[in-house]
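Weekly sync, protein design subgroup
Attendees: M.S., D.O., the rotation student, P.L. (late)

Item 1: inverse folding check
M.S. brought a backbone from last month's batch and wanted to see whether the design step gives back something sensible before we order anything. D.O. pointed out we never logged the input encoding, so this time it goes straight into the notes. Structure tokens as presented (343 positions):
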């Protein structure tokens, strides 16, 4: 194999022009390292805001971007026991988060942030920072699991496991929300989804959503969602919008229900930011998640195989050299599901 490779780097905080593409040496292997030849990566909102200097967690200088990647094992270090040459693998978002909760060390091991990510031809990773790729998916589909898939799984199963017949409320048609629809339907739950257009509503229904609410037409969609449940409220809300959607999420939630805060697509400030007293008034739990552990990843992959869940990938696929164009395409919200990059 070649001793050099193509790789992207985040060289500043001035926007997508801060992304640099150049030739570098293929990483060297330690005794417990695995060299992965990447075949696909996928982008997340986090990747878009890192080169804009808007990411609130740590970012290393000149880091290789993108947390998500799937590929084949090219070589292994002499003390590697979990993988062999030719195995198909997917990377773990926080390389040090193997099980349980994040701690002060594992939270600093995020790919594409503090640790070099996947927008490159090869990457070297500790064998514990990889999982076996589900057998029923291709490389593009597998590359969507690292962040969005595992975040949705953690939201539904990380604290209070979703049960058949319960209600799940999702927001929009981003990667995490669509995974949540798929996981919830596979579990026998009922899904109420929100979106902004009839075309996206139809796609959500095709994926199994039982009810779809247009938040542009129904400003009180949280109250509407609660009425759909018969007044009891939804058991799980995946909150991706931020302060501007949280008020409606709190109106929709059931007593003892869980609102999992995933992100802040609508910004960090709202016209009316709810207070912690709303948790008392609604009897609900609000938690934030930062993806999930390797143990949860392996649990999720077993469910993906058992239920033949196929991640939703946008029809537009970019090549590695076209990463800047991919960033802009996603920033312009032209995608549905996960946006992937072939490597």
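Designed sequence read out in the meeting:
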């Amino acid at each position: 194999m070649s001793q050099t490779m193509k790789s992207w780097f985040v060289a500043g905080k001035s926007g997508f022009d801060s992304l640099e593409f150049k030739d570098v040496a293929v990483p060297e292997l330690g005794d417990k390292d695995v060299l992965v030849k990447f075949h696909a990566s996928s982008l997340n909102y986090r990747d878009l805001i890192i080169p804009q200097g808007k990411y609130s967690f740590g970012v290393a200088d000149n880091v290789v971007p993108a947390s998500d990647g799937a590929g084949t094992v090219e070589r292994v270090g002499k003390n590697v026991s979990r993988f062999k040459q030719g195995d198909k693998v997917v990377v773990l978002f926080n390389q040090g988060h193997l099980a349980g909760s994040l701690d002060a060390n594992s939270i600093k091991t995020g790919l594409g942030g503090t640790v070099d990510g996947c927008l490159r031809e090869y990457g070297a990773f500790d064998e514990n920072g990889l999982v076996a790729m589900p057998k029923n998916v291709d490389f593009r589909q597998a590359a969507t699991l690292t962040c969005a898939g595992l975040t949705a799984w953690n939201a539904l199963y990380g604290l209070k496991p979703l049960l058949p017949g319960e209600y799940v409320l999702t927001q929009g048609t981003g990667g995490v929300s669509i995974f949540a629809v798929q996981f919830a339907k596979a579990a026998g739950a009922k899904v109420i989804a929100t979106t902004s257009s009839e075309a996206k509503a139809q796609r959500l229904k095709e994926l199994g959503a039982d009810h779809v609410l247009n938040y542009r037409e129904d400003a009180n969609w949280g109250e509407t969602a609660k009425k759909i449940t018969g007044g009891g409220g939804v058991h799980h809300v995946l909150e991706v919008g931020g302060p501007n959607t949280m008020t409606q999420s709190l109106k929709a939630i059931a007593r003892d229900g869980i609102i999992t805060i995933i992100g802040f697509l609508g910004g960090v400030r709202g016209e009316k930011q709810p207070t912690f007293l709303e948790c008392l008034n609604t009897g609900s739990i609000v938690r934030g998640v930062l993806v999930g552990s390797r143990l949860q990843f392996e649990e999720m992959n077993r469910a993906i195989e058992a239920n033949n869940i196929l991640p939703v990938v946008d029809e537009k696929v970019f090549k590695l050299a076209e990463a800047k164009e991919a960033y802009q395409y996603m920033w312009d919200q032209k995608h549905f599901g996960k946006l992937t990059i072939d490597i």
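Discussion: Residues 70 and 90 are 4 Å apart (CA to CA). The chain is about 25% helix and 25% strand.
Action: P.L. to compare against the previous round before Friday.
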